[in-house]
Amino acid sequence: MKDSARQRLKNQVAIVTGASSGIGAGVAKALAADGAAVVVNYSSSSAGAEKVVQEIKDDGGCAMAIKADVSQEDQVQRMFSQVKDQFGTFHILVNNAGLQKDAAFVDMTLDQWQYVLGVNLTGQFLCAREAAREFIRRGVQPEISTAAGKIICMSSVHELIPWAGHANYAASKGGVMLLMKTIAQELAGYKIRVNSIGPGAIKTPINHEAWETEEAANQLLTLIPYNRIGEPRDIGEAAAWLASDESDYVHGITLFVDGGMTLFPGFRANG
Ligand code: NAD
C-alpha cells in the first residue's frame, strides 16, 4: 500500500454508501489505504464505482462494487447479504449516500421533499439497522477492534446551520443528527460506536456550481474562516480515524470538518 504505513483498519471490512463519486469515493480510498477491504456502494454510476475500485486495487488495496439504492429496503438487505456472503461479516458502515433537490420552500413539491428524505434519512436508517443487526449478532472480535462495529453517518454543517432554499436537505441532516445520537445511546451497550461527520464545503459534484468559477469560489470562501474549500480527502482522513480504535472513546458526536464554517463567520467583523 502506497499511503498507509498505519493500517489501523487491517482485517476489517467497510461498506461505504454512495461511494462512486465525491466524498464517498474519498472515504472509500482512505479506509482502503488504512487497511480495510471496502465495499463501494453505488446506485447508478457503475463506471464511477468501478473506477474507485480499480484505484484502490492499483494502490494495493481490496475493494468491490455493489449496486443498491439505499432508500429501498429490499435492495439494502440484498447488499448486506452479498457483503456477508463475500466476506463473512463487516465492521464499518459509512452512511454517506445523499443528494439535494433544491427549491424555494413555497415551491417545493412533495416529490422533492420525499425524495431527499428517502435517500438522506431513510437510507441511513435502513443501512444502520442492517449494520447494527450484524454487529449485535457477531459481537466484539478483540483481535480486530475494541468495538463490535462502527457506524459513521455523513451529516453536514446543515444539521446545525439553517439553509434557505434547501428545507428538505436541512431537515434530512437535522434528522440524521438525532438518528445518530439516539442509536448511539441505544447501541452503546453492544459496543457499537456511532458518530457523524459534518462536512462544510467540500469540492464534489453535489455543489459544483458553488466552487467551479472563481467568483463563486471567492463568495464561498467568505463563509470559511480557514480560507480554503475542502477536498474529499479531508473527510476521508476523518472517517478513517473515527473508524479506528484511536477514537475508541468517541461516541455520539458530530465531528465537523469544515474549516470553521460553523463558527458564525458573519460575526468576524461585527465587534
Ligand atoms: P456526490 O453527489 O458526489 O455524492 C453522493 C453520492 O450518493 C453519489 O455517488 C450518488 O450516486 C449517491 N447516491 C445518491 N442517491 C443514492 C441512493 N439512493 N442510493 C445509493 N447511493 C446514492 O456528493 P458528495 O458531496 O460527495 O455527497 C456525499 C455526502 O456528503 C452526502 O450525504 C452529502 O449530503 C454530504 N455532504 C456534502 C457536502 C459537500 O460540500 N460536498 C457538505 C456536507 C455534506
Give a structural overview.
This protein is of the alpha/beta class. It has a single domain, classed as NAD(P)-binding Rossmann-like Domain (Rossmann fold). The protein is 41% helix and 14% strand. It contains 7 helices and 7 strands. A 7-stranded parallel sheet has the order 3-2-1-4-5-6-7, with helices on both faces. It starts with 12 loop residues before the first strand and ends in a 14-residue tail after the last strand. The model has no long low-confidence stretch (mean pLDDT 97). Bound molecules: nicotinamide-adenine-dinucleotide (NAD).
Question: Would you spell out the secondary-structure blueprint of this structure?
Answer:
Elements: E1 13-16, H1 22-33, E2 37-42, H2 46-58, E3 62-67, H3 73-87, E4 92-95, H4 110-138, E5 149-154, H5 167-187, E6 192-199, H6 214-221, H7 232-243, E7 254-257
Parallel strand pairs: 1-2, 1-4, 2-3, 4-5, 5-6, 6-7
Helix pairs in contact: 1-2, 1-7, 3-4, 4-5
Nicotinamide-adenine-dinucleotide binds at residues 17-18, 20-24, 41-45, 69-71, 96-99, 119, 123, 154, 156, 199, 201-202, 204-207.
Question: Could you name the key traits of this structure?
Answer:
271 residues; Rossmann fold; seven-stranded parallel β-sheet; 7 strands; 41% helix; binds nicotinamide-adenine-dinucleotide
